[in-house]
Design brief:
The complex is a heterodimer of chains A (about 120) and B (about 110). With about 120 residues, chain A is an all-beta fold. Chain A has no helices and eleven strands. By secondary structure, chain B is mainly beta. The chains are: A mainly beta (about 120), B mainly beta (about 110).
């Protein structure tokens, strides 16, 4: 079955760019939508954005000015960049597969904690 | 932007039925998906498109959606059902939206 694994630095300095990669195993990344979702400690889930394997993207309007997503089908990976981070961006970041453009998220990666601190 | 409102917490006696609501403007016209999240774990899909269960999810989990409220029902609640539950939809501008989350406690 398809499995997802997030990777990237666990600590990012304020004003810098957060960069994460999600590696997909057990299946092809092609012909699916893929998403990033985050969750600050003790709080709810926040959708960050989605990308299709063609490279087409949609972002959460509240984060749109700082988010960039990309996909590398040759590596079965997709990535997230979030610029100008502050402490408010400290969260567990999850990657997930979308069943369709307006579908459900399944499966999810295990999540990776990113802390923004100097 | 579209908002989904859930009760902060729901308590249910062991073996009884828990109902978790998800309120949103005309949510009945949207497809609602539900996720279960246990402490320290990633969310898991338990209901998709209002009332469909993925393989491996017990029949005790069911869903409905009408008007301004979607509902996740957990029948014959077990201790292992203690978790946070989130509803999710796509709003008209194709942005993903999650509910505020509900903590379910089994007494």
């Amino acid at each position: 079955q398809v499995q997802l694994q997030e990777s990237g630095p666990g600590l990012v300095k304020p004003s810098e760019t957060l960069s994460l990669t999600c590696t997909v195993s057990g299946g092809s990344i092609s012909s699916y939508y893929w998403s990033w979702i985050r969750q600050p400690a003790g709080k709810g889930l926040e959708w960050i954005g989605r990308i299709y394997t063609s490279g087409s993207t949609n972002y959460n309007p509240s984060l749109k000015s700082r988010v960039t997503m990309s996909v590398d089908t040759s590596k079965n990976q997709f990535s997230l960049k979030l610029s100008s981070v502050t402490a408010a961006d400290t969260a567990v970041y999850y990657c997930a597969r979308l069943s369709a453009a307006l579908g459900w998220f399944d499966p999810w990666g295990q999540g990776t904690l990113v802390t923004v601190s100097s | 932007s579209y908002e989904l409102t859930q009760p902060l917490s729901v308590s249910v006696a062991l073996g009884q039925t828990a109902r978790i609501t998800c309120g949103g403007n005309n949510i009945g016209s949207k497809n609602v998906h539900w996720y279960q999240q246990k402490p320290g774990q990633a969310p898991v899909l338990v209901i998709y498109r209002d009332s469909n269960r993925p393989s491996g999810i017990p029949e005790r989990f069911s869903g409905s959606n009408s008007g301004n409220t979607a509902t996740l029902t957990i029948s014959r609640a077990q201790a292992g059902d203690e978790a946070d539950y989130y509803c999710q939809v796509w709003d008209s501008s194709t942005a993903g939206v999650f509910g505020t989350g509900t903590k379910v406690t089994v007494l």
